[in-house]
Amino acid sequence: MVATGAFAVLAAAAATVPTARTAEPGRFDALGTATVTLALTALVWALTSARSSGWTDTRVLGALAVTAVLLTMFVLVEHRHPNPLLPPRLFRTGRVTAGNVLMALLGSVWIALFFFLPLYQQQVLGLSPLVTGLGQLPLAFANMLGSTLAPRIARRTGPAAAVAGALLTEAAGLLWLAGISAHGSYLADVLGPSILIGLGLSVAFVQLTGLSVEGVPPQDAGLAGGLVNTTRQVGGAIGLAVLATLAGTTTAHAATHHSHLEALTAGYRTAFGISAAVLGAAAALALLLTRRSAAGSAGASPQPVPQPAARDHH
User: Is the distance from CB of 89 to CB of 150 less than 8 angstroms?
Assistant: First the structure.
């Protein structure tokens, strides 16, 4: 029954939705797709392997060298291909560059947060998976609240200030988590930081998504929207690899002098502390990058920042 309904919807869409016509038809940028995919794969592999093999391992260094070569090839391909996967013109419009740089930094701690926090709750606090999941609900509710308030905050303070304030709010929550204890509790160590993080994360996500498509021509709007989501995911993969390596190294060193739970907690504290520092730097960078990117359009009539629909980002 469900399959029949889905087929009927697809058939109706095929019959009624007009076919899109591209202004610049051309062949698919297969080489650009291959080089950037392989480059990111090699980079994540190198960062992940460095934890067990060490940063001076020949394979790790080789993977980093391959990453550099492939990324260079990708840039060259994009400048020469008639239909590039990522046209250079996109970064000369609006605040695309600023939005994507900041989204990458946000993503680099976003994924890691939802990796390390449940581990702390289960492995150190001893909570069951079900109770751990329920313990994430305050963060999710704060996330939804922040998404709803984000447009109102931006209208009052301006998009750049809203982004910086949201990043600092999330950084404060992560800094709070950096003080977790091996003998702590959910109420004392997790609840308060979760609410701060949820509020900051949601407002930052909404505003950065808006900034990343602001001023982009209509024909490139879909590309800009896809790019910022890809940037978030790539930043998350790289950030998790780096933070997991650093947390694991900290835990290994701490295990020689402390109990297992204290060693695990030390690793998680390292991950949360570095994440807070990254977001603090991103907040300062937000004011600088958005101001510079806006300077190029000085004198033009101000355009409102498009606001994505509110959603739960947990």
Answer: no
